[in-house]
Design brief:
The chain is α+β, with helices and mostly antiparallel strands. The chain has one domain (about 5-385): Thiolase/Chalcone synthase (Peroxisomal Thiolase, Chain A, domain 1, 3-Layer(aba) Sandwich). It is built from eleven helices and 17 strands. It has helices at about 20-25, 30-35, 50-65, 90-95, 115-125, 200-220, 235-250, 255-275, 280-290, 330-340, 345-355; strands at about 5-10, 15-20, 40-45, 70-75, 105, 130-140, 155-165, 170-180, 185, 195, 230, 300-310, 310-320, 340, 365, 375-380, 380-385. The strands form four sheets. Strands 5-4-6-7-1-8-13-12-11 form a nine-stranded mixed sheet, sandwiched between helices. Strands 3-2-14 form a three-stranded mixed sheet. Strand 12 and strand 13 (about 310-320) form a beta hairpin. The radius of gyration is 20 Å and the shape is globular. It starts with a strand and ends with a strand.
């Protein structure tokens, strides 16, 4: 029985900062961003947007198409949790008016948790072939102003419907995965910004890739040349390129610039203009690849490398299914990305410095451009959401 991703929908904030604006404010050459890390823009959520609204907005297209009727498992993967107890997915479940017969859980392991959710969803469908699972991965990447990680900030969410006989991508069962207790990136409860040891994190990312690939290759007997495209976790697009080059060198596979471009370029397009989406980033890459590849991807094998700092990594693969283009949301994604509003530097800094009130009092938030849902305020320590469509 084939099991995998049946539909995929992507959402990001309606606001962005061009990294030229950030470069001017920081008095640096913009090519440090455009070329050095391969990023052009970063998505910025307004005060009335959070992981709940982004996750629900990503899944809203599925609801409109009647795709959620058979969903009995909702897994929300994030490292930007908004409550120490209540899962973000429960809020989403309510906003989408989903069936009450549904297990709903929030998962956390840095940027890897989206893949953990996908694999758990596959296990659920294997046991319940007539049912479906909804996997949502969503995050807000946030670093201190003026820090080395600032230009990699971003936000976004991906909603994936997981089912038997998937219409998009069959996920193959063989996986290589690796865990090691390290401190390359972490977000303590008492901080809203992440802490990262950039050079160390890059080293661990690549080491975990090599270990995961070694297991995967041992299980499958496949080589890198058996893959048509790759989707990597993308903290910034140059990291994906660097990782694949390192993997090829380690395995003594010759790789020219044109080959690297053909293997990765389409998967990097969305992330280049949205920034890091943490747990969603590898699946943003998948949506980008499926939406923008000029060639017919039917039957093509995709290699996936998911990495979460701390750390857990996994390498696995998927095969694109016949007729996949008929169930893509590519036009919706294109419209979303083209109609965003650019922020000035001062607007960006004002939003960055805005803090969600923590006194539990009565607060109503001003309305910005959002998707179908917004974070409208706080009352008696309770977050309140509303539908705006």
């Amino acid at each position: 029985m084939k099991i995998g991703i049946d539909r995929i929908s992507f959402y990001t904030s309606n606001y962005f900062v061009d990294l030229q604006t950030l470069a001017d404010a920081r008095s640096v050459d913009v090519n440090k961003y455009y070329t050095g890390i391969g990023q052009e823009k970063m998505g910025i959520p307004p005060p009335d947007e959070d992981i709940v609204t982004m996750g629900a907005s990503a899944a809203f297209r599925l609801q409109q198409d009647g795709e959620l009727d058979d969903v009995e498992l909702l897994l929300f993967a994030t490292e930007s949790g908004i409550d120490q107890s209540k899962a973000a997915g429960v809020y989403v479940h309510g906003l989408l008016e989903m069936n009450n017969r549904c297990r709903t859980v929030e998962l956390k392991q840095a940027c890897y948790s989206g893949t953990a959710a996908l694999q758990l969803a596959i296990g659920f469908v294997a046991r319940n072939p007539g049912k479906k699972a909804l996997v949502i991965a969503g995050d807000v990447a946030r670093y201190e102003l003026g820090s080395p990680g600032e230009a990699t900030q971003g936000c976004g969410a991906v909603a994936m419907l997981v089912s038997a006989d998937p219409r998009l991508v069959e996920i193959n069962p063989e996986c290589g995965y690796y865990t090691e207790d390290v401190m390359d990136f972490w977000r303590p409860n008492y901080r809203s910004e992440a802490l990262v040891d950039g050079k160390y994190s890059t080293m661990v990312y690549i080491h975990t890739l090599l270990e995961s690939w070694k297991q995967y290759a041992g299980l499958t007997g496949l080589s890198l040349t058996d893959f048509d495209h790759f989707c990597y976790h993308i903290p910034f697009t140059k990291m994906a390129e660097k990782a694949h080059e390192k993997l090829c060198r380690k395995l003594k596979v010759e790789l020219g610039k044109d080959q690297l471009h053909s293997l990765l370029e389409e998967s990097l397009r969305y992330s280049r203009i949205t920034g890091n989406c943490y747990s969603a980033s590898m699946y943003v890459a998948l949506a980008s690849l499926l939406d923008t590849a000029a060639e017919d991807l039917t039957g093509k094998r995709i290699g996936f490398y998911s990495y979460g700092s701390g750390c857990v990594g996994e390498f696995f693969s998927g095969t694109v299914q016949p007729g996949y283009r008929e169930v893509l949301y590519g036009n919706d994604h294109k419209k979303l990305l083209e109609n965003r509003t650019e922020l000035t530097y001062q607007q960006y800094e004002d939003i960055f410095n805005y803090g969600v009130p923590a006194d539990g009092g009565e607060h109503v938030f001003p309305q910005y451009k959002t998707g179908p849902f917004r974070f409208s305020g706080i009352s008696q320590h309770k977050r309140e959401y509303e539908t705006v469509v």
